[in-house]
Design goal:
Distance between the termini: 9 Å
Largest sheet: 2 strands, antiparallel
Strand order of the largest sheet: 1-2
Number of strands: 4
Number of helices: 10
Radius of gyration: 24 Å
């Protein structure tokens, strides 16, 4: 079950491995991210000064890459005696590949990082703190070319203004892709996980949780997180409704006589264990902190 901050053992997904301690740099502050399985992460948001330096480094690398590709393309076109149409096409493709392809490819391969971001310890993450994929990188890359920086971005003015107006320093590309840039060289706090009621382990391990999608898992986690803030009547009424919905979705019969808190805590704990690889350790905190 979910309990209050400081009461639970916690873990991170593999990509969120903590690294050496390092003081946050200028231009960062903390923000809370609600992840898909762990309840909350406090991650340092990268602000304009740090992102600007990373951007300049990437631009310098893009210029070098563009120069190298241009020389190579010119040599090939001259070798084969290409006409003017081929020259125009080749330069257009080279320009787009350098301007948009560079960030898209790097952020996809490095899961949210370009060489410039890596040098400054920055990473692009989803709005829930998870790693991005090609779709996010593509959206950010195209938005950077068209809106934030180049085509209609007035050489970055749009990106800077939108970042200044955003609580999480998100430019237009981040808003469209649902991403945030964070500084990930500080020690990342472990997200808090649910604790399995010891006597429900065997029941939970036999469940087929493939039917428990995020639209139902999220309100269940919210119920567990806010359990101690609810009135007894609300605890029972809302908990019973969630148990009915969850058990219907996973096609399971709840253990007779078990209260909603135990059942929902067992289901969410088992889901987190399977998703994040959390070892089964039911007694992770003194039982006096848990209202079994």
């Amino acid at each position: 079950m979910e309990v209050r901050s400081g009461a639970m053992r916690s873990h991170t997904a593999n990509w969120q491995r903590p690294v050496r301690d390092r003081a946050p740099t200028v231009g960062t502050d903390m923000a809370v991210f609600t992840t898909g399985e762990a309840v909350a992460l406090d991650l340092p948001i990268a602000r304009i000064p740090t992102r600007a330096v990373a951007f300049v480094l990437d631009v310098l690398l893009q210029v070098m890459l563009g120069w190298g590709l241009t020389v190579g393309v010119m040599a090939l076109l001259a070798l084969f005696g290409a006409d003017l149409a081929w020259w125009d096409t080749a330069f257009t493709v080279t320009f787009v590949a350098v301007l948009a392809g560079y960030p898209i490819v790097w952020e996809t391969l490095l899961r949210g990082r370009t060489p410039g971001k890596a040098a400054l310890g920055l990473r692009v993450v989803r709005g829930d703190g998870g790693p991005i994929d090609f779709r996010h990188a593509l959206t950010r890359g195209l938005a950077a070319v068209i809106i934030d920086f180049w085509a209609f971005g007035v050489f970055g003015a749009i990106g800077v203004l939108t970042s200044l107006c955003s609580a999480r320093a998100r430019r237009v590309g981040d808003v469209l892709a649902g991403t945030v840039v964070v500084y990930d060289r500080t020690r990342i706090p472990w997200p808090k996980l649910a604790i399995m009621p010891p006597w429900m382990q065997e029941w939970a391990r036999q469940l087929d949780l493939s039917g428990l999608t995020e639209d139902l898992a999220l309100p269940t986690r919210h119920y567990l997180t806010r359990y101690f803030e609810l009135t007894p009547e609300t605890q029972q009424r809302l908990g019973q409704a969630l148990v009915t919905a969850v058990c219907a979705r996973i096609r399971a019969v709840p253990p007779p006589g078990s209260p909603p808190l135990h059942i929902l805590g067992a289901v969410i704990s088992e889901r987190q264990r399977r998703t994040l690889g959390v070892p089964a350790q039911p007694n992770l905190m003194p039982l006096e902190h848990v209202s079994w």
